[in-house]
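Let us practice reading a record.
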Amino acid sequence: MKKNEYSLQGASLTKFFGTAAVLRDISFSLSLPSSLAITGPNGSGKTTLLEIIAGIQRPTKGTVRLFRDDTELRRPWHHETGYVSPRLRLYDELTAQELIEFTCASRSTLRNRADEFLAMFGLTGHRKKMLSRYSSGMAQRLKCILAFISEPPILLLDEPGSNLDREGKEALFRYLESVRSERIIIIATNEKEEADFCGERISLG
């Protein structure tokens, strides 16, 4: 096995809310590099499955395990994952620059990459603007920056193109295409372009 070779395994993942089963016996095995789309109608459990993989929710049954080389990593996997979700809330009292610096400090990431990612997603001129003044599309671009800037080996993306205009989606896919040979990428989506980007698929519902 190559140095820093990652593999992510889900086994028999099941989730009940009360007596209602949202997920039943979902399994997958991904090794770096690979990409997986989680698709299905609204309410089929796409976000729930992604949040279980991310460690935000616990499954009723089943396990998610992450390995680096021959070693299983214990949660939390903050340094190994980048997460984008509509449920994430930004700190409105901060500027984009301040939030990026906070994220870099918490992940021991070089701050000098901030300029590169702000330019990549078209936010250079908005870096000192309070996030309370960001549009939904600008906020989505910033969420992508925060997930990508530390270059984690695993990207967990819940509807990453939501609220993005054409230019924003082009920036997103340029980045994903540039790293697809170096990452495990999981996208929960109903967007054809996002699903078709991935080499594997789990269809729910």
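A brief commentary: The mean pLDDT is 93.
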